[in-house]
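Deliverable D4.2, example record:
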Amino acid sequence: MHDLHDTTLPETSARLAVVLRRATAETHYAVERLPLMARLTSPTVTRDDYLDYLHALAEVYAALEGSLLAALDEEIRNDLGVKPKLPAILDDLVEQGQLHVPRASAQVAAAGSGAALGGLYVLEGATLGGRVIAKHLRRCLGPALGSAGFLDFHGEQSSMAWKRFASILDSLPAHGRMDPGEVVSGACTTFSVVHRMLAGAGEQIAPVEARSEHVGPRGSGSRRLADFARPAPED
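Output generated by the structure prediction step:
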């Protein structure tokens, strides 16, 4: 994930975006402090660190993105301007000579459209700071970074994409189309899921040599987002 508080991003007056930013600040900070993320932003970052990050993000997006997008009406998705990011992550891995096969067969189900909107706030925010990370990695890794299609997903349109997303995000509750409380709850729960998955990424990552065939279909089972976010039992 990337810095939602990145000062290179435009300021927005969107009320709900501000509420979401404050509500998720603590978990966001915890994600930034994870070893995986610390290595990615270190001056001594390696190509292996970048690959570990891509594999971890592939797990996160495979588990979350599809169900979050599916829980929203097509009209709202189009207004928000959100597009699937998992294909870009998988393409980056193939470019690096690897193919990721998610270990989890079940996607995490969103608890309604409001929660899904909050979850997409988290995932969209993860791409908005990508250009900053990409620039850092290009300085450190040079051509070995490749195209970095996920990190540079929005390209020169990053600021415009965020302004559009934040504007629609704020307008939906204002017009009675979303419950702000559900949106905030969904964002907090999604961030908790992301933190838990990235924290355990070191044990889950299993690089596979790239092959010409695509990743096969995943299982049809699902788990609710809130269930997935429950703390692991203590030993």
